[in-house]
Structure prediction request, 168 residues.
Amino acid sequence: MSTPIRILGIDPGLRHTGWGIIEQTGARLVHIAHGVIEAPTDLSMAERLGHIFEAVGELARHHEPHAAGVEETIVNANPRSALKLGQARGAAMAALAMAGVPVAEFAPRQIKLSVVGTGTADKDQVKFMVQRLLPRAGDMKLDAADALACAICAAHHLPMQRIKKGAA
Prediction:
């Protein structure tokens, strides 16, 4: 029997950073936990980034993932928003690096394709499929569903030889 691999998915955001943890044993995926990190909007940018950094670091310490997947930032019509989202993403990735967790990055299209079967799926379709693939997850916010989708994508794409830790 295969050794279980614990994977943390992150859907970064300045207001809401979704997170989800799954365990993969062979081809089987099991929901472990999920949630949303909410950085108070009345904090300065530096404080919000610090909040995300600390919360992701605590997730890594508590759940001890073997690997992580983080959604890439898409550059859209608003470069300022993309830059801010990139900073939140950087805070999350830095926290994972400090915890010694290998991080893989996935484009939103790749995540949607991996979970729904089409790269143009909307957030509700992603949530629907995550709930079907991980029935123990129950209901969740869209940000948590996106994070679980990222973890599922990571489970399908991460080369297991890059995982440094042993089983949890």
